[in-house]
Amino acid sequence: MKTVLITGANKSIGFETARQLLQQGYYVYLGCRNLAKGEEAVSRLKADGLDHAEAIAIDVDNVESIKAAREILGHKIQALDVLINNAGIAGSFPQPPLETPVTEFKQVFETNFFGVVSVTHAFIDLLRMSPEPRIINVTSGLGSLTLHNDTNWKYYKIKPAVYIASKAALNAYTISLAYELRDTSFKVNAVDPGFTATDFNHHTGPGTVPDAAARVVKAAVLGQDGPTGQFYSDDNAPETGISPW
Asked: Catalytic residues, which ones?
């Protein structure tokens, strides 16, 4: 049975991603800052007959918490097949680039960028033990430099400087990581779940959580003939699903 760790998995897109992967036969570890909330999420899944799920305490902003989660998971499994870096924050709005304090940038980058790097570093050894490891970084179309330089820029009514910058950095890291692992069996991709109605945006997005999670799952279950180093965005590339960075 393949294993997957999802950060920020106790609610919303992370939780639904866990549900869909469980339905496909994966054993899912739900990474959550609050273990009690994680265990409650697992209970909801098990009530629906999805038994192969466990909660793991992990705060991506805290290096010691990440190390502890790695140690716990290392006692449970010998290999991790999929890592989904889903945990993220939006920061306080609005985020004008000239008025937003540096402290706000640092706070958002700590979760959206440095947290992803730290978690990836911590679990890369377990991923290397898998015959077909997958790393998925959940990003946003707002982090695409290409899209912000063409007519799609006008699509976005708000331009949150902090959030955009953090996701642009995440996209760049995804490209670099995929290139480093290009001659291995790894598939490393970024996924834009789309503008989805969640707590993240006060439920203002037009997309649904199940549809958003399905986009993440598609990258998680890629076969060996699938691409790596790509930016999946059905919103911005409806025909192929792969958008320019």
From this structure: 140, 163, 167
Model confidence pLDDT, tens digit, residues 73-115 = 999 999 999 999 999 999 988 898 999 999 999 999 999 999 9
Give the β-pairing of 231-232 and 242-243.
antiparallel
**CB-count burial class (<10 Å; 0-12, 13-18, 19+) for 199:** exposed
C-alpha to C-alpha distance for 100 and 105, rounded to whole angstroms: 8
Dihedral in degrees, nearest 10, Cα atoms 244, 130, 87, 11: 110
Domains within the chain, CATH numbers bracketed: 3-243 (3.40.50.720)
pTM equals 0.93
Rounded Cα gap, residues 162 and 140, in angstroms? 13
| Spatial separation of the C-alpha atoms in residues 137 and 210, rounded to whole Å | 18
Q: Which two tokens stand for residue 150?
A: 């063409």
**Mean pLDDT, range 122-138, rounded to an integer:** 98
Orientation angle between helical segments 63-76 and 115-128, nearest 10 degrees: 20
d(CA 89, CA 87): 7
